[in-house]
Amino acid sequence: MRRTALLSAAALLTGLLPMASAQAADDLAPVPVDRFEGEVPFADPPAGGIFTWGSDTDDPPALELTARDDAPEGDKVLTGTYDISGYGGFTHDFAFAEPAHDWSAHKGIRLWWEGGDSGKKIAFELKDGGANGEASELWTTSFTDDFSGWKQIELPFTDFTYRTDYQPVGGIDQVLGLTETWGYAVTLPVGVKGEFAMDAVELYGKADQSLRASVTTDAAVYPVAEGRTAAVRLTVATTGAAPIDEPVTVAYETTTTGTASADDFTPLKGEFTFPAGTPSGTTRTLEVPTLKDKRAESAETIPLKLTVTGAKPPAETPQIVVDAHGLPYLNSKLPVQKRVADLLSRMTLAEKAGQMTQAERGAVTAPGDIATYDLGSLLSGGGSTPTPNTAKAWAKMIDAFQLRAQATRFQIPLIYGVDAVHGHNNLVGATIMPHNIGIGATRDPRLAQRTGSVTAAEVRATGIPWDFAPCLCVTRDERWGRSYEAFGEDPALVEQMETVIQGLQGAPDGRDLKGADKVLATAKHFVGDGGTEYGSSTTGTYTIDQGITKVTRQQLEAVHLAPYETAVDRGVGTVMPSYSSLDLAGDGRGPVKMHARADMLNGVLKGRMGFDGFVISDWAAIDQLPGDYVSDVRTSVNAGLDMIMVPYAYQDFHATLLDEVEAGRVSERRIDDAVSRILTQKFRLGLFEKPYADTSGASEIGSAGHRAVAREAAAESQVLLKNAGGLLPLKTSQKVYVAGSNADDIGNQTGGWTVTWQGSSGDITPGTTVLEGMRKAGGDVTYSKDASAPLGGHDVGVVVVGETPYAEGVGDVGNGHDLELSAADRAAVDKVCAAMECAVLIVSGRPQLVGDRLGDVEALVASWLPGTEGDGVADVLYGRRPFTGQLPVTWPKSQAQLPINVGDAAYDPQYPYGWGLTTLGKAPEGGATTLKALAVAAAVAEKAGAEEAGRALVTKARLIVQRKAGQDITAAVAKPFADADHLLLTGRYGKAVEKLTAAYRAS
């Protein structure tokens, strides 16, 4: 999909296209859009002009303005050559800052095209509505190059259809309004070398009223309790909000073509007219009475047929729905198990298959499909948001989807899911927490739970009851682009941080899930996604993500499965398998995709661990299974998947699953098990009683209280690796020179999975950068991103460097990424640290290789990806809070050492797992004698189960070792030091101090 190119806007010279408006004349003179005489330059955004795009570097076409004697208009035409393997074309958007253009008065758009009789289709696209050219809808049509020479191609606006394969921001209103048009794009044929010529793009013709005026209903579905009256509001509206020129007549009639019978409602039939001159926005209301009887019934539909003359009719026939009533599953006082059993017994196979189907919201271009296919779930992929991207718009969008589900027989509500992996990260203005790698660095399970609570409250306040988090991966190779999604490399640390599940869900038994501040959590990605072997990925250009995890059964149990056992004990509601493959030594199967591993999903997860939630697939993950689509569906469902995320293929999946059950290749028992699990969570969430958004907590989204939690998490996540001469904390009296690419960039600071899937640099969401936090802390700060400002007169430098955002395999090392600082960052560090004492902060999702510069740096901080609250970073820099964070992963000396992890036989890192200096008062005194006494006391605490005392004793021993070792961390020091932290996390306090004693002796 062309994500970046179509999200970009290019300028259109203001005088080129005058604003078109409706005219009273019988016809309108053509209005030029592009003449290609040189008035519009070729320039990439953000500069104005025509720009090209493509799926890779070879796919964008080559364009030029060519003088031609046969030009249909003027002297020049636009010519181009192309050889496209994926997709490619060019765009002419209006300048981002200019108003959109009103094309609604015209019949269509036309252009001259020099045909080559290739028989290929040329796609032509409009960008319509929304906030700007980057947040508009894409509408497309095409013409066929089946002619030779110049031909004028006319494209009536009525021929354009909403794009279903890709939308940059998803649906806005899915109406081609033409009152706010941002430009056009041309997509060229794939798989052939070709050339083209094009000239004179212009608007033509006059739109008749039936294209400018429309009659709409305020909804497509009208649920009503039996015996009550449904009110259907009909509104006449025109583009540009002008009064209608001619009368508009609406004939209406209730029909029995729905599921309701004639004795369920009072028939309604009639006609009314909006006379000429009626103001746009005028509304009439029709009332449809329903009749009450004493029967318990499923929901019944009453279509209201509308025949409109003189305007466009509603896109759909509105339906009155008499609510289901009197059936046991609707009784909230019954146990969930009985409600599930009753509902399941009433459902058809097609309805059950629908519950197992999850679609991407942008794919549901016909909202009626929610009822047609009895869809069980929708999701927003990364960056799939409403426009505008506000809490109110999220709630309104999801309520509209839930309304559609009310038109189904049993009115089973949707369960809407979103990747809120560090706060409600798709929502602009939400509180963005540190990524999991930073939460792991805090070593603070209570704080982890509080971050989960904030996330849950903000997500649920926008109408979303389900979060695809937390990631319980155990990252074993920092070349992995998902490293920052892990709490760390040690399964014991991951288990400690799983308190986030209680923050999201509440009590393990699910009794809190109905609350307006709780969401269903997802443990992902089961199992072994953090252990894939470098170079084993077969997904595009990925190098390690979605690759193969090669382990013994013992390694699988000890490293990768252990966190899931804890998650199941904590009552996690859903589990998502990994894209990766598992190659289990000795089983004779070789690498098998996790979505096909029945032994792991049915056997280990549901069987041995007793998981009673449901398993949700990853994004289109079944498409990666070997074989055809039919076998993908059969294999994955039989392996234990209960709901399948088929973003753009929900119709195919639904039909295929039905066929497989009817053919006996998937058992009805397997279907009933899957649907029972899904319905159980919907009942636990209280969705049957309250399907719509409870926005009572919306005022707390991004609130000071929520940001205070994120600020505390950011502060506790900071790991002080080096602090020569006690440079940190800074004093507000010091003159501080701040530099580096990540000092003042909220996008870099929050990382991937922020507003969009990959994240992006820049001011993408409200928050406080590190620089802003330092200024707010009262620091005397000079800032120069590239250190070009004069360096003299400063007491200390702070250089904030690191990575730019990425997500998943896009961020894999070897896929355009490495673990080195950029040339600009290295230059900033070298320049500032040569001129004054300096502290270097590394804002990144994984360790960066800085060993060659350590001698020139007084202080080094692993700042991870701290989220929106840079105040938290400033808090530790200026001593408002102490540095207390510890490394959640091993910090390597070189990339050649990777993978390197705690417990390795050979272990010689730059900084060991668990390393973290503190500024909390004076470091404890003592030596071997003190450590011996600490070991005795720690053993006593271990025996007594005194966790707090045991941790305190081990921490004191660790600080003594760090003080002696300084920066001279040899392999003999590093290995027992790291092992000690693992022992601490597993409650073996006495053994932990013994290991630290060995590290002390080796230092």
TrEMBL record:
Reactions that this protein is recorded to catalyse: Hydrolysis of terminal, non-reducing beta-D-glucosyl residues with release of beta-D-glucose
InterPro entries: CalX-like_sf, Calx_beta, CBM11, Cellulose_Degrad_GH3, Galactose-bd-like_sf, GH, Glyco_hydro_3_AS, Glyco_hydro_3_C
Gene3D superfamilies cross-referenced by the UniProt entry: 2.60.40.2030, Galactose-binding lectin, Glycoside hydrolase family 3 C-terminal domain, Glycoside hydrolase, family 3, N-terminal domain
Key words, A-Z: Calcium, Glycosidase, Hydrolase, Repeat, Signal
Domain Calx-beta: 213-308
Pfam families, per database record: Calx-beta, CBM_11, Glyco_hydro_3, Glyco_hydro_3_C
Residue ranges occupied by any Glycoside hydrolase family 3 N-terminal domain in the UniProt entry: 348-680
EC category name: hydrolase
EC numbers: 3.2.1.21
Membership in a protein family: Belongs to the glycosyl hydrolase 3 family.
Protein's UniProt name: beta-glucosidase
Species per Swiss-Prot/TrEMBL record: Streptomyces plumbiresistens
